[in-house]
Amino acid sequence: MNKFLENRTTDQSKRIAVIGSGFSGTMLAVQLLRKARSPLTIYLVEANPRQFARGLAYSTESDCHLLNVPAANMSAFPDDPGHFLRWARTREKHLLNVPWVSEITGNTFLPRRAYGSYLFELLDKTERSAASGVCLEKKFDKATGLRIEPRGVTVSLLSGECLQVQKAVLAIGNFPPCDPVVNNPGFYQSPCYYGNPWKPDVLQALLKTEACLLVGSGLTMVDWAVTLGQSGYRGTIHTVSRRGLWPQVHRPSSPFAFSIDPQASPPSVRAWLHEMRRHIRVSGCDWRSAIDALRPDTPLLWASLPPVERRRFLRHARIYWDCHRHRLAPIVAEQLEVLLASGQLQRHTGRILEYRQSGQGVDVSVRQRGQNGVHTLNVDAVVNCSGSESNYRKLGSPLIGDLLGQQLIHPDPLALGLDVGPDGALLHRDGSASDCLYTLGPPQKGIFWETIAVPEIRGQAEQLAKTLLSGLG
Predict the structure, then answer these.
(1) What is the distance between the alpha carbons of residues 138 and 237, in angstroms, rounded to a whole number?
(2) Residue range 452-466: average pLDDT?
(3) Fold of domain 3-65+111-175+391-472
(4) Distance CA 12, CA 28 (A)
(5) Which tens digit of pLDDT belongs to each residue from 403-450?
(6) Burial readout 102-115 (b: 16 or more C-beta within 10 A, e: otherwise)
(7) What angle do CA 98, 100, 104 make, to 5 degrees?
(8) Cis peptide leading into 455, omega within 30 of 0?
(9) What is the dotted CATH code of the domain comprising 185-247+328-384?
(10) In terms of pTM, does the model score above 0.90?
């Protein structure tokens, strides 16, 4: 009997649903396929077939969309740090693409689409080598609701199909940004406004304009500015952000032994930042090395901060931390500088007050930082690049709305994600841990802070796979 028929006819009473097939969901499915030794069906649910086993981040086709981390640090497996680099080296002739990729080394920043291919191939290879009776079922559908049943969970799909499983995992990644607060929010219904920067029709629409505005100054803004430049856009690209801080650039730096002991002094964001600055000054190390050295300890440090200190960090230091922590590939930073030097990219610091649409486009009123006056920008289109929304009470997701309504999930106190236990179990509104609903990756940000990048998520996927399989008995 061939493996396909064997999988279809084996007892499949044990079932797990993984909702979302970005990096989090794909790696959880990979780990389940690797570790399961008795019959198991894994449903991998993805609403967008083009993003299957890639997610939004790695389904891009643009050569200029590079990883923000060198290849040596992008392995899918915690115990095999060279896995991705070896994969890339065997495909060197297909990946070399000057100026974006001129060599394949551990320090190379490869295209995100290449990483998407890596994940897709990894899932396919792992599926084919899984133990007898262990199978993956791809569901190109949208999960709209969950119900807790006496023997597990029922996952409702948009098509009307229902999946009966013992465990369900929300591997839902990041959500589109929330519309910024302005005097006339009615503008957000305008065809000149693109609230989700990653919808497939945005680029072609922008290429027809003579001027556009990118709201925000983070990695999404950089992606769009460089993409427009590489696509032959001739118009003016405006960016507006409140503080005008842009992501810093990766530079080669030596590893640095640095840590902060949360028990040595009262937990304080101010004190810890002073300690970090002092170590950098005394040692002469690059600040990048100090931040990277803290990364393994960040969840422990975050957990040790009292709520008032966490809120102080979010209010005063988060934007500075983010632009130093999440850095740009050097070649991307160079292309951004070219756009700035040419004058095509116009950088504004301030707060958008309102939008007024007319026959000549959109007039955007900006109160410039440190000034009383209001500056007006005239553009043809506005793209929201302000970063993903993390307050689950504001999301328009039917699935999240359903779970909140049933009190099966609860936002964390800082509205950065969801309340979860240390093993990824979702917490109900009363604080009790679910024995059948779990999550990993970005939804855990409020609890662990450092939980949105490959090194953290790959470790979570491995541990959660063990937890799920042991819970099945």
Answers:
(1) 40
(2) 95
(3) FAD/NAD(P)-binding domain (3.50.50)
(4) 19
(5) 999 999 999 999 999 999 999 999 988 889 999 999 999 999 999 999
(6) eebeeebbbbbbbb
(7) 85
(8) no
(9) 3.50.50.60
(10) yes
